TrEMBL record:
Protein name: GH23903
Species for this entry: Drosophila grimshawi (Hawaiian fruit fly)
Length: 408
């Protein structure tokens, strides 16, 4: 335990346990001044899939039976059109590998493990998963029936969470001993959070053309006012004369025309987008041959020994997955998925006041087109063209959209 600037830093030290048997999470504990961090030790491991307690393919397994089973079960005509299809295809491949290893291994190695393959889902997790599914349907369909189904599940989940919180507080009150000398301090910590007031949502003056001063009444009006304010702030900060800007704009247009002519003359070899070269079977085979057998497996327990004995049909399936991932990978999918799962990303920001939003875009592109190849220039130019932003206030599902003034 180390004291740093008035705070306590707790360090957990363990040994002799696998990382798959440990679970670390934080919880809201009203009996503590800090955010408690819990570490749980699972005796049977956190993963209940069959075969995760030892190597799924032992040394005395029949490799020929393993490869024959995979050649029979792996299908190369799988259609992959989205990120969810990729996840499903990976799960199917892992399941086929587990079943093939079970088929090729001695029976006594899998009989005891098969009985522990059970995962219990709580009703709260099921409601949360259903709520996210209905939310995606509502955002796609935008119909009244989809909205009604989404609201019903949302209300049921809120009631369940409210009841869970009440039961949790009642249990905490029951745990306070009336003969404890610190009972008043514990009681004060519990009631401190219960008596906390909700911060008010103050209105502010709206933007008007005729000069009249009115106040915002709804969240949508407040969002629109934020849009007007931000659009006024996102203005280019020119530090040169108008003649210099016209000169740079003309030279930039000339360079862009020369680049387009070069692209057309080379038959698209220097296109504005990064060229995609599919992964080949020989490349994947060379990477598999270079794997080290002594490396420990991942969470799926598929070690390098299993990968090295995969048949060619399974390797072709991996090639299909690799090429599909590169074609379907979109940053927006990761952002939306993390937003639904309430995952957060830490970032480091350099304190430069409005550097990106008030930069002179034509001058920046003029420097980029002279320094970078056409492929990278096209990618960076796409970040600056047709930019917009969304303002969402409170629980109002209707968001206000604004645009940047320096459009290309």
């Amino acid at each position: 335990m180390t004291r740093i600037s008035g705070h306590l830093l707790w360090t957990f030290i363990y040994g002799g346990f696998s990382n798959t048997c440990l679970s670390t999470y934080s919880s809201v504990d009203f009996d503590s001044d800090h955010l408690p961090v819990h570490i749980e030790l699972a005796a049977k491991g956190l993963f209940a899939q069959a075969g995760l307690r030892r190597r799924i393919l032992p040394s005395n397994a029949n490799i020929s039976k393993f490869q024959a089973y995979l050649n029979q079960r792996v299908l190369l005509n799988t259609e992959i059109n989205s990120g969810e299809d990729i996840e499903d295809a990976i799960d199917v491949l892992n399941s086929n590998i587990y079943e093939a290893a079970k088929y090729a291994s001695p029976p006594h190695l899998w009989q005891k493990q098969h009985s522990n393959a059970s995962v219990k889902k709580t009703s709260l997790d099921d409601q949360t998963r259903k709520l996210l599914q209905l939310k995606r349907e509502f955002l796609v369909l935008r119909t009244s029936s989809a909205r009604q189904r989404y609201r019903q599940v949302q209300n049921r989940l809120r009631k369940a969470l409210r009841l869970l919180k009440v039961n949790y507080l009642n249990n905490l009150f029951k745990q306070i001993d009336v003969h404890d000398r610190y009972r008043m301090q514990k009681l004060w910590r519990l009631t401190q959070t219960l008596k906390r007031q909700v911060e008010p949502n103050w209105p502010f003056k709206m933007h008007s053309v005729d000069g009249t001063q009115t106040w915002t009444r709804t969240n949508s009006e407040k969002a629109e006012e934020f849009v007007h304010h931000l659009e006024a702030r996102f203005m280019p900060n020119y530090l040169n004369t108008e003649e210099d800007r016209r000169k740079v704009a003309g030279e930039l247009q000339l360079l862009q025309q020369q680049q387009q002519q070069r692209i057309a003359g080379d038959g698209g070899a220097f296109g504005t987008s990064l060229p995609f070269r599919p992964v080949t079977l020989s490349e994947v085979t060379l990477e598999i041959k270079a794997l080290v057998l002594k490396k420990s497996p991942g969470l799926d327990n598929i070690d390098n020994h299993v990968i090295k004995v995969l048949p060619q049909k399974a390797i072709l399936y991996l090639v299909l997955l690799f090429n599909s991932i590169q074609q379907l990978a979109r940053v927006t999918q990761f952002i939306l998925g993390a937003y639904e799962k309430r995952q957060y990303c830490s970032a480091v920001f350099i304190d430069i006041s409005e550097a990106f939003d008030r930069v002179w875009h034509e001058g920046l592109l003029y420097k980029l087109i002279r320094l970078l190849p056409p492929t990278l220039y096209g990618v960076l130019r796409s970040y600056l063209s047709n930019r917009s932003f969304v303002v969402n206030t409170g629980a109002d599902p209707n968001s206000a959209t604004g645009s940047y003034s320096d459009k290309l």
